[in-house]
Amino acid sequence: MLASDWSRAAAEIARAEAAGGDWLHLDVMDGHFVDNITFGPQFVAALRPHTRMDLDVHLMIERPDRYWRRFWEAGADGITVHVEADHDCHETLAAIRSTGRRAGLAISPDTPFEAVLPYLAEIDLLLVMTVRPGFGGQAFMGAETMPKVAAARRHREDHGLAYHIEVDGGIDAETCHVAAGHGANVLVAGTALFRAPDMADAIRSMRQVQEIL
Length: 213
Ligand code: ZN
Prior knowledge:
The protein is α/β, with parallel strands linked by helices. It is built from eight helices and seven strands; from the N terminus they run αβαβαβαββαβαβαα.
């Protein structure tokens, strides 16, 4: 959503859904956790009636424990909070999960994989940030982040877990191969889809990558 034309939000969502998008990824930034501000729960609630796509809300905010419920009320299907944020991760994840929606945990590029280890049995999704959180349109940081995707896949297999592995940041027609090859099964793409000459084509080719691997 970050890369879409916000002045025409409903039309942009309809375009993404018609092009074959499964999930709509919504980046919430509070000006504290990251040096940028986007939107809050009212915007998510405004979008909800315009699509049947899964609303995948990524909270890049300092106190997700205080605000996640408002996004749940707004109609989010999944809520992802950062391991680096100022909250009790066990408690926040358990509370999100108790609503029956998807509970996600995100890790920034500079944070070691070990930081998320205590929570992996309690989540439905691990979001490995492939750029530093805060702005769209950045270059993919493969060297720093792909070992984490591979470690997450290994850990999931070793422990019989079932969480999704999502990558977010700099995902395009080339980097999606790299991420899927290391084990990512949810690919968040902004600029590469909303600015593509043909969004349906771009989504189709990204989907094929996952089917091949
Ligand atoms: Zn995101």
